[in-house]
Amino acid sequence: MNKNSNAYTFIFAIIIVTIIAGLLAFTATSLKPLQDTNVKAEKMQNILGTVGVTGVSREEAELEFNKYIKKQLALKNDGTVDTSTDAFKIGLKNEIKKDEDKQRYPLYVAEKDGETFYIVPLYGAGLWDAIWGYIALASDKNTIVGANFDHKGETPGLGAEITTDWFQTQFTGKKILDESNNFVSVTAVKGGAKAEDDHGVDAISGGTITSDGVSKMIDERLSHYLPYFKNN
Amino acid sequence: MAEGKEALFSKQNKALLSDPLNDNNPISVQVLGICSALAITVQLKPAVVMSLAVLFVVIASNVIVSLIRNLIPGRIRIIVQLLIVASLVILVDQVLKAYAYDVSKELSVFVGLIITNCIVMGRLEAFALANGPWKSFLDGVGNGAGYALILVLVAVFRELLGSGKLFGIEILGHKAKTIADSTGLYALGYENNGFMLLSPMALITVGIIIWVQRSKNRKLIEQH
């Protein structure tokens, strides 16, 4: 057979593509459950991390998660609880595209050493791609006790610094409400926040848009939880 | 048929293994695959995993392409090579995600970028298309190892000087907030060199490796 004929080239291409597609589809499907377990465990680790339960291995994550997380609520925009939705399964990536009234807002209530914490999942936009994270509030629903952030494709060394400890630990102790209990959120301040500022943290030099993204994300997400916080 | 009679580890075949380690190293002599050498050599662990991933991909793709080299239509050979490399890379990525999740997060996009690693395509085009599977296998092992050698060497320097650790274990002592609380070298006032963590230092480290290699290996010096 003439190896340079069009027919041969086409047949060869079709055969090899089919074989490879089959192989890849098989691998992807058979490894999916394991991969999903990893993603789920990582989510649990992140949630626990915001209330200071760190150093949990992925294998222990589920056990520890069930130990500390007492309630997983799916809230409606008016602050009532939708009992028919599993909060852990809400994927913010898609949820956030819906109308505010149709969205369900996941809230994790943790208990550690007799104290209650409220953990709010975050999702927003950085400079290049999505950023997300978790922020934990103390029982006063005002003081931040911990936060962590992650990103898909921010610039390493600049925007990607949001995943570092120095950026994340700044949020601890900041407040989301002002003295008259109005919501003001926490903002990353370009040029550095004043030490006595309860609502500001230092933004990342060279990562202004990512820092702004973090501020916007916290503001937008937390604002939907205020009705629930007010009534409970 | 001459190939069949040749001993498995003939002198020629041994050279396939040893050449890429020194005389014909893919990074330090051919200067290929530099991008990944810069990107993932901040720490030793991802460098080792990346080396293993590239080693696997270059060996497997070499053997596969070599096996079907007489069937591949000349006009679409590059696409076919790319297809094989890409699927192997996806396999590696999927397996890492399932069994070594932390490492896969750390390597993130760089696993995918093995596809564009010039070493892989280079070996397919230059070697596997014209040689049998066994020779191609050896060539893959040699080149993968040559790549790994430089990557690990660079990573050792960068992690040791940049963060005082190897594989995440503190080698030079513990650095606390004050000198008094520190141990090891840090107690003497030693500071980590933050520059080593930035990509340009990888390039400079590779440069120094090339310099040392050339001064030791006279064959590599161009005659003018």
Order of helices and strands of chain B: HHHHHHHHHEEH
Weakly predicted, low-confidence segments of chain A: none
Class by helix and strand content of chain B? mainly alpha
Round the Cα radius of gyration of chain B to an integer and report it: 20 Å
How many separate helices of chain B?
10
Mean pLDDT score of chain A: 88
Which residues of chain B sit in consecutive blocks of at least 5 with pLDDT less than 50?
A: none
Number of E strands of chain A: 7
Please, how many domains of chain B? Answer: 1
Which percent range describes the beta-strand content of chain A? Answer: 15-25%
Order of helices and strands of chain A: HHEHEEEEHEEHH
Measure the end-to-end span of chain B: 41 Å
- Can you give the helix content of chain B as a percent range? 55-70%
Task: Categorize the overall geometry of chain A.
Answer: globular
In which order are the strands of the major sheet of chain B placed? 1-2
Most extensive contact = A-B, 20 and 20 residues
Name the structural class of chain A: alpha+beta
**How many helical elements of chain A?**
6
Largest sheet of chain B: 2 strands, antiparallel
Subcellular location (chain B): Cell membrane; Endomembrane system
Subunit structure (chain B): Composed of six subunits; NqrA, NqrB, NqrC, NqrD, NqrE and NqrF.
Transmembrane segments (chain B): 47-68, 80-101, 107-124, 136-157, 194-212
Family (chain B): Belongs to the NqrDE/RnfAE family.
Commentary on this structure:
- The complex is a heterodimer of chains A (232) and B (224).
- Helices cover 36% and strands 21% of the residues of chain A.
- Chain A is an alpha+beta fold and 232 residues long.
- Chain A has one domain (43-231).
- Chain A has a five-stranded antiparallel beta sheet.
- Chain A starts with 5 loop residues before the first helix and ends with a helix.
- In chain A, 31% of the residues are buried.
- The model of chain A has no long low-confidence stretch (mean pLDDT 88).
- Chain B is mainly α.
- Chain B has one domain (23-213).
- In chain B, 60% of the residues lie in helices and 2% in strands.
- In chain B, helix 2 (11-18) packs parallel to helix 9 and helix 5 packs across helix 6.
- The termini of chain B are far apart.
- The chains are: A alpha+beta (232), B mainly alpha (224).
- Chains A and B meet through helix 1 of A and helix 5 of B.
- Chain A: Keywords: Cell inner membrane, Cell membrane, Flavoprotein, FMN, Ion transport, Membrane, NAD, Oxidoreductase, Phosphoprotein, Sodium, Sodium transport, Translocase, Transmembrane, Transmembrane helix, Transport, Ubiquinone.
- Chain A: Its EC number is 7.2.1.1.
- Chain A: It catalyses: a ubiquinone + n Na(+)(in) + NADH + H(+) = a ubiquinol + n Na(+)(out) + NAD(+).
- Chain A: InterPro entries: FMN-bd (IPR007329), NqrC (IPR010204).
